[in-house]
Write a structure and sequence with these properties.
- There is one protein chain.
- The protein is of the alpha/beta class.
- Helices cover 36% and strands 18% of the residues.
- It is built from 12 helices and 14 strands.
- The strands form 3 sheets. The protein has a 7-stranded mixed beta sheet, with helices on both faces.
- α2 links the parallel β2 and β3.
- α3 runs parallel beside α4 and α8 crosses α12.
- The mean pLDDT is 97.
């Protein structure tokens, strides 16, 4: 099995789907001649030409709306947002058009499109460019929301997202683009809405998505030295959420810590906690704890940026509290 980077896995997924289905095309700022701001679309313009790899002006609302219209007429656009912070400019098309078209047309008009790009903090990009906005999109009925944490997941989930008949919000992590891992070659898909247990364990369940999966795994390694066996569950798709895998894990470990990069109020963790307390309350031996980003705009200063993001020590502290080690 080939070992490739996260960005290469995304590139491979798009290339394979464009070869498989001539209705698939890519557009966005600098996706063509520049090969993408993070080089995810490297080589696609040369291979598929300017009719299927389109450089757009800096007009997120405009070219996302173009994608909605193209999807309504039978094409399968992949709309790259240079950073998901810029998706705020395209929210009207995503929320009011893409998400609702199937419902408002009485099931007659679907919008099979993918809106993808990097989200979250990293590299001192400060408050306006360091936001984990997945909770916003999860709030909207009609959207699917995907957050891959590994190169293999990036490829398998993106291929499934491109084939899905609904609008899919596909949020990558810019700090994971260089992460390498084994990725199956050729046809390889992962169904949307299916979680994966990244690390089995028996004493506590850590539920984390995107780059927080790696923070949870680092914490689990440290906890193992103390004799605490942590299970790490990666939902991979946040909407629809694989509640069955999460509940089965809680029934085994009886304790849970939810880790997310986003802000705490109305965050992803709040939904996961609600799900657990409704479906597995009798299995819990301790209150569920959440480890989130700090509830402030992201600072520019590097030490403050690190303080705002969840890290291994905060996860370990939460596990100590749910296992009554403190």
């Amino acid at each position: 099995m080939a070992v490739i980077a996260y960005r290469e896995a995304l590139n491979q997924a798009m290339r394979e789907e464009m070869l498989r289905d001539e209705t698939v095309f890519l557009m966005g700022e600098e996706v063509g001649a520049y090969n993408g701001a993070y080089k995810v679309s490297k080589g696609l313009l040369d291979e598929f030409g300017p009719k299927r790899v389109l450089d757009t002006p800096i007009t997120e609302l405009g070219f996302t709306g173009l994608g909605v219209g193209a999807a309504m007429t039978g094409l399968r656009p992949i709309v790259e947002i240079m950073t998901f912070n810029f998706s705020l400019l395209a929210l009207d098309q995503i929320v009011n058009s893409a998400a609702k078209m199937l419902y408002m047309s009485g099931g007659q008009i679907g919008v099979p499109m993918v809106v993808r790009g990097p989200g979250g903090a990293g590299h001192q990009l400060s408050a306006q460019h360091s936001q984990a906005l997945e909770a916003w999109f999860c709030h909207i009925p009609g959207l699917k929301v995907v957050t891959p944490s590994t190169p293999a997941d990036a490829k398998g989930l993106l291929k499934s997202s491109i084939r899905d008949n609904n609008p899919v919000i596909f949020i990558e992590s810019e700090v994971l683009y260089g992460l390498k891992g084994e990725v199956p070659e050729g046809e390889y898909t992962i169904p949307l809405g299916v979680a994966e247990i990244k690390r089995p364990g028996n004493d506590v369940t850590l539920i984390a998505h995107a780059k927080m999966v790696h923070v949870a795994l680092q914490a689990a390694e440290e906890l193992e030295k103390e004799g605490i066996d942590a299970e790490v569950v990666d939902p991979r798709t946040l909407r629809p959420l694989d509640t069955e895998t999460i509940i089965q894990s809680i029934q085994k470990t009886n304790r849970a810590v939810v880790v997310e990069e986003g802000w705490p109020f109305c965050g992803i963790g709040a939904q996961v906690v609600d799900t657990i307390q409704h479906q597995a309350f009798d299995y819990l031996d301790a209150p569920i704890l959440r480890v989130t980003g700090v509830d402030v705009p992201m600072p520019y200063a590097k030490p403050l940026e690190h303080l705002c993001a969840p890290d291994k020590s905060r996860v370990i502290d939460a596990v100590h509290r749910v296992t009554y080690r403190n």
